[in-house]
Write a structure and sequence with these properties.
By secondary structure, the chain is α+β, with helices and mostly antiparallel strands. Helices cover about 40% and strands about 15% of the residues. It contains four helices and three strands; from the N terminus they run αβααββα. The chain has a three-stranded antiparallel sheet with strand order 1-3-2. Helix 1 packs across helix 4. The longest helix has 13 residues. The radius of gyration is 12 Å and the shape is globular.
């Protein structure tokens, strides 16, 4: 179940792991602590199931995503942060 609170929590999680306002596809694994991989993002992008916004740069087509888009994508895939206290 995706809501604004869960998306905001995921944004904070990504920022705590070094993500900036744009997450390059090649940096997504590190920023997500391994929950996302380059291959998963590439495949889901090609199937129109990837993050809902992306940024392309240069002739080589470097791909990145706004951090909120990555957070929504992770939430849709079931990533959530739970507190057990």
């Amino acid at each position: 179940q995706m809501n604004q609170k869960s998306v905001a929590e995921i944004v904070n999680f990504l920022k705590e792991n070094g993500a900036g306002s744009i997450v390059k596809r090649s940096d997504a694994k590190e920023a997500s602590c391994g929950f996302l991989t380059i291959g998963t993002l590439r495949n889901d992008d090609s199937l129109q199931r990837g993050p809902d916004e992306r940024v392309l740069f240069g002739a080589r087509g470097v791909v990145g995503y706004p951090i909120e888009s990555v957070a929504r994508y992770m939430a849709k895939r079931g990533f959530r942060i739970e507190s057990r206290s």
